[in-house]
Amino acid sequence: MREIAALAAEVARARGPRARGTLDVRIPVALGEAAPAGGVDLLRAIEAEVDRAAAVVAEFQPGRVFCFQCGDAGCPHGVPQTPTQTFAGYTPLGRPEWREFLELCLERRPPHLDALYRDPPAVLALSMTGEALAGELLPGFGRASSSYTLLGQVTAGLVPQGRERVALTLQIVETRPGPERLRLNLIGASPVDIAAAAADSAPRSPAERLRRTLEETRKRLAALERRAAVAEARRERWDLRQALEPLLARLRSDLERIWRPETHRTRHARERHLEAERPTGSALMDARRAGDDRLLVDADQDTIVVLGPRGRTHVFSPRGRHVTSIHLEPGELARKIQKRRWRPLPPDQAAAFRAALGHQRQ
Question: Which DSSP letter does residue 293 get?
Fold first, then answer.
């Protein structure tokens, strides 16, 4: 098995997959066959599986839409031309179409359309099924693709982002083969930027609520993925698209609720709502137990980051005051360290931080 795995890795390097990523290669092995042709058949099977797996890696690129016309997600058609555009569907020949969010709203006329023209404008969300987005595809141009299928999307707009407003699109994509079948594709903002904005804001701010919505949506997709695998193993009839309908409906309402103005709250209530009740006791406990290698400094915010167990991450001021707590997405820690936003805390600052923690109460 080690020799087969090494052979598959060598084939992948030799054939040069079009995009970086992890290839999950499944090779059927018939033990006990000693015929000379067996090695040739195995090599051909490995080459075929590597090609299929590499196609999935190339077709699904976060933040982009696969273009069936060019056969690549990295072509210029895979991204919107302006921050206020959203994906509106495929042409019959497989080219992605991008439309201004306001233009699409005027065409589809969602409830409370007039709220888009208030001061400040409201944020509305549009839900579109996979059939509405990819129903015009012709055979040979993505309609019968077995490796990349767009199952639906929800677009929220126009979402405040700094001084601008952007269209935020969340797509559900099915990819095969591979261990991860249902993927959440975010267009209009990166998960890293959302997590950074959430870390720098109050626990119930729109940025933090958006981060939690994305996390909960990924968990629901994982549950549907497991249900689909069970149905496939038992050869049961189970409609994945129908099962996704309530998920898309909930995602739409969750996104609109994030930026909905809370006019019924008093000013004092709104301030308390945004501040929330931080888990100070748990954060202090994690900070006091953390070794020096688990203490980092945020170069942008001049705060101290404590890496707790099971992905828990706490942000403190240098004086030991708990600012907020977040849960890091997979790979997020490595990206922050690679970009040198989070750096190891020098020993003298670590000692001062621990002394400051000693004066804090649970």
Answer: G
Could you tell me which residues come within 8 angstroms of residue 85 by beta carbon, excluding any fewer than 6 positions away? 98, 99, 100, 101, 167
CA distances from 297 to 182, 200, 264, 287 (A): 35, 14, 39, 13
In the structure encoding, which two tokens stand for residue 53, read together? 């797996």
Q: Residue 227: which H helix or E strand, with range?
A: helix 206-234
Q: What is the pLDDT of residues 213-243, one digit of tens each?
A: 999 999 999 999 888 888 888 988 888 888 8
Domain boundaries, the chain: 2-59, 76-258, 278-357
pTM as predicted: 0.60
Each residue's pLDDT tens digit, 23-56: 566 666 655 555 445 677 778 777 777 766 665 5
* Tokens coding 161: 């982002």
**Short-list 188, 96, 216, 192, CA closest to 148:** 96
**Is the sign of the CA dihedral 124, 133, 169, 174 positive or negative?**
positive
The phi and psi torsions of 81 (rounded to 5 degrees) equal: -85, -25
- Distance between CA atoms of residues 51 and 244, nearest Å: 29
**pLDDT digits over 266-307, tens only?**
444 444 444 444 455 688 888 889 999 999 998 766 789 999
